[in-house]
Amino acid sequence: MAAPVLDVRDLRMRYGSTDVLTGVTFTAHPGEVVALLGPNGAGKTTTIEILEGFRMRSAGDVRVLGVDPAHGDERWRARLGVVLQSWRDHAKWRVRELLSHLGTYYTAYSTDQVRRPWAVDELVDAVGLNAHAHKRVGQLSGGQRRRLDVAIGIVGRPELLFLDEPTAGFDPEARREFHDLVHRLTDLEQTTILLTTHDLDEAEKLADRILILAGGSIIANGSADQLARRMSSEAEVKWSRHGERFVHASTDATRFVRELFQQYGDSVADLEIRRATLEDTYMALVRDFESGRSGAALRDFEAAVQ
């Protein structure tokens, strides 16, 4: 297996006498999408800023693309992409001109393996801004501006991309197109993505792995399906027969449904199977943590899904 793009071990951060991060440990590999979730104040922003090299940590071992971010140089930074929640600069620039200008800063860091920057026409097309390429940035709508933010973040063809609430302000169609872009980056470019979002549905759709950060440490680490199955062994099966509705909880929904059809055949209608969603899992984990019930049980949970 290739070396991890992110290798974080026992990351700690203290402000004065307050411990914000108390031992964060995780890895991310090439082409993987990892979602970092957690309540406000959990330490997500601090973690991301340390990984980006913008904030010095108090303790722990951190490697980003094989480099300690506290000592990363410009060549290392050229391999990263960052999409912030919002930018308010560059209003007078035209979209295509701005991306072309920003791309020139990456030319010196092109390699045989990664040609930088991204060709501007291809980039404009990839983020869905063809029709707006010659507009001034200040004339763009909120959703169009968010697409430009994404384009700015990936203009240098990053090997690692940090996305902070990337689809805030997107309409459903733009959100779907953005998700397609993320899949393109990971599948074709092998870009590793660390995503922070409050949109749990988006995290479930995009992320290969979910990290839940609470109280300064990772309290869960696994795919959305792994987390849901660990938190809830039962699925809810709903169906109807002759107009009457039924609901049943089962630990083996597949077997139950098979037996249901064996018994009632074509009279079974409106069949629906509902398992715990990522939102259900997230809320249960954070609630348990905040109520003090986490402890050893959540450490066992984290170990089991890794």
Automatic annotation (TrEMBL):
Main location per the UniProt record: membrane
Keywords: Antibiotic resistance, ATP-binding, Nucleotide-binding, Transport
InterPro entries named in the record: AAA+_ATPase, ABC_transporter-like_ATP-bd, ABC_transporter-like_CS, ABC_transporter_ATP-binding, P-loop_NTPase
Pfam families (UniProt xref): ABC_tran (PF00005)
Domain ABC transporter: 6-240
Family indicated by similarity: Belongs to the ABC transporter superfamily.
Protein name from the UniProt record: ABC transporter ATP-binding protein
